[in-house]
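Quick one, C-alpha cells below. Sequence please?
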C-alpha cells in the first residue's frame, strides 16, 4: 500500500496534471488539497486537450473518486462550469465520483473585485495574481470571517454571514479602493442558486478519506502551483496564498502525515515562472523565447506568457529538502532537443559569496547570480522514446546530471504531452 503526494518542485506549471493523470491509474482516491482556479492543469488524452482548473485530473479515469479538500478555495461558478463541460463531453456520468469538503471556503464576488483593484493600484509592485480572488479569500479564512461551503448550504446562516461581511467589504471597496460596492440581494440570489447545484457533492471528506485508507485504498494527493510559490517557503511576497508544499496535503485534506508514503516533485527539464519575483536563470533573449515557443509556455488559466530559463538545481535541491521528496518526475525533456548545448545552474553567488541554499531575503534573492555548467545537446527527436534506453546518450547524461545535482532519484521522464510519451523508471505506488 502507498499513498502519494505530487507537488511542484519549481514555480508551478511543471506538468503536474499529466503526472497525476498517469499515477491515477494506480490510485483509488485523487485529492486536490490547496489553491483555487488560479491554477490550470493541461492534459492531452489521445488527440484531445483537456484543461482543468479545480477538479482533480483523476476525473478523466473511470471508477476513481475525486475529492476537493478543505484546503481549496472554491469559486462555485467556475466549478459548475467545469463540471458541466465534463458532463457534456461524456467525462462524468456519475456525480458520486466527485466530492467537495463541507469545510472548504467559498470565493465571493468581493474577493475578485478586491484582488483586481489591489493589483491595478500596485503599479510596478504587482504580485502578478490572476485576479480570481484567491488571496482575498484565504485572507478571510485566516481572519476567521470566511464563508464555508457548509454556510452556503444553510440559507439563514449564509444570509447572516453575507450581510455581516459586506458591511466591511463595501467600505474597503468604496473608501479604500474606489470601486463600486457589492449588492447584497444580487449575491444572495446568485449564490443561493449555486448552493442548489453544489449540495449533492458535499461530504465530510476527511472522514471519507480516513475510511478509505483504513480499508486499504490508495490515495493520490494533487497540489497546485509549486514549492517556490508556497506562502511560507516560497519567494515571499511573490507567492500564492496557500501551502503548496507536501505538508499542505495533510492540512488541506484532513489526513495524518503517517498516511503519506511517497512524495514526488514535478520539475521541468528547464524552469519557468509567471508573475513577478526573482528568477536567477531567466533568459531574456532568443534562447528564452525559443524555450517559450517550443515548450508552449503560456498559462493554462490566463494565457500569460511564462518567463523561461535554464534548469536551476538550487531550486530543486531546496524543493527536495522542504518537501522530503522521494522522487522527481522530469517533464518536457523533449523541449531541449533542438539546442546545441544546454546549461544547468549548479549554484548561486551573491556579493562575492557562494550560497548554500536559497536566501530567504527577497532583496538578496534578486541579487543572486547563477553559476552554470554546460553540457552538449542531443539534437534529435526523442518524442517517440518508449524506454530510458531509447534516449540518446547525451540526453541520458543530462538527466543523470540533474539527478546528481538535485540529490534525489528521477523516477519518471516525460518526452511529450501525451500519456504514452512517458518513461516510468519507478512507480511510487509499488
Amino acid at each position: 500500500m502507498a499513498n502519494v503526494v505530487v507537488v511542484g518542485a519549481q514555480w508551478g506549471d511543471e506538468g503536474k496534471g499529466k503526472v497525476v493523470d498517469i499515477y491515477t491509474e494506480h490510485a483509488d482516491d485523487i485529492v486536490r488539497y490547496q489553491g483555487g482556479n488560479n491554477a490550470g492543469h493541461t492534459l492531452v488524452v489521445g488527440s484531445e486537450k483537456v484543461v482543468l482548473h479545480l477538479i482533480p485530473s483523476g476525473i478523466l479515469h473511470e471508477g476513481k473518486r475525486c475529492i476537493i479538500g478543505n484546503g481549496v478555495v472554491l469559486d462555485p461558478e467556475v466549478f459548475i462550469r467545469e463540471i458541466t463541460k465534463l458532463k457534456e463531453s461524456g467525462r462524468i456520468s456519475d456525480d458520486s465520483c466527485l466530492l467537495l469538503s463541507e469545510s472548504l471556503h467559498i470565493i465571493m464576488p468581493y474577493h475578485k473585485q478586491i484582488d483586481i483593484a489591489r493589483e491595478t493600484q500596485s503599479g510596478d509592485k504587482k504580485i502578478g495574481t490572476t485576479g480570481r480572488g484567491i488571496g482575498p479569500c484565504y485572507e478571510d479564512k485566516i481572519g476567521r470571517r470566511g464563508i464555508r461551503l457548509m454556510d452556503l448550504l444553510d440559507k439563514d446562516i449564509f444570509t447572516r454571514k453575507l450581510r455581516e461581511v459586506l458591511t466591511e467589504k463595501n467600505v474597503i471597496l468604496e473608501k479604500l479602493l474606489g470601486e463600486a460596492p457589492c449588492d447584497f440581494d444580487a449575491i444572495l440570489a446568485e449564490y443561493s442558486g449555486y448552493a442548489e447545484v453544489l449540495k449533492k457533492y458535499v461530504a465530510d471528506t476527511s472522514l471519507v478519506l480516513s475510511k478509505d485508507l483504513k480499508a486499504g485504498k490508495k490515495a493520490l494527493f494533487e497540489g497546485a502551483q509549486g514549492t517556490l510559490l508556497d506562502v511560507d517557503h516560497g519567494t515571499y511576497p511573490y507567492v500564492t496564498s496557500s501551502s503548496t508544499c507536501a505538508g499542505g496535503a495533510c492540512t488541506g485534506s484532513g489526513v495524518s502525515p503517517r498516511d503519506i508514503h511517497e512524495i514526488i516533485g514535478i520539475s521541468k527539464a528547464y524552469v519557468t515562472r509567471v508573475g513577478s519575483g526573482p528568477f536567477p536563470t531567466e533568459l531574456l533573449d532568443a534562447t528564452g523565447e525559443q524555450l517559450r515557443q517550443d515548450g508552449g509556455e503560456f498559462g493554462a488559466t490566463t494565457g500569460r506568457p511564462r518567463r523561461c530559463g535554464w534548469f536551476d538545481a538550487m531550486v530543486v535541491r531546496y524543493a527536495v529538502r522542504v518537501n522530503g521528496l522521494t522522487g522527481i518526475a522530469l517533464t518536457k525533456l523533449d523541449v531541449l532537443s533542438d539546442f546545441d548545448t544546454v546549461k544547468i545552474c549548479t549554484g548561486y553567488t551573491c556579493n562575492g559569496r557562494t550560497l548554500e541554499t536559497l536566501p530567504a531575503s527577497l532583496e538578496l534573492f534578486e541579487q543572486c547570480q547563477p553559476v552554470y555548467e554546460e553540457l552538449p545537446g542531443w539534437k534529435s527527436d526523442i518524442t517517440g522514446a518508449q524506454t530510458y534506453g531509447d534516449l540518446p546518450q547525451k540526453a541520458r547524461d543530462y538527466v543523470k546530471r540533474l539527478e546528481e545535482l538535485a540529490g534525489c532519484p528521477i523516477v519518471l521522464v516525460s518526452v511529450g504531452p501525451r500519456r504514452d510519451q512517458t518513461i516510468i523508471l519507478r512507480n511510487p505506488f509499488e
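Residues 155-176 form the longest helix (22 residues). The domain at 4-99+202-259 is CATH 3.40.440.10 (Adenylosuccinate Synthetase; Chain A, domain 1).
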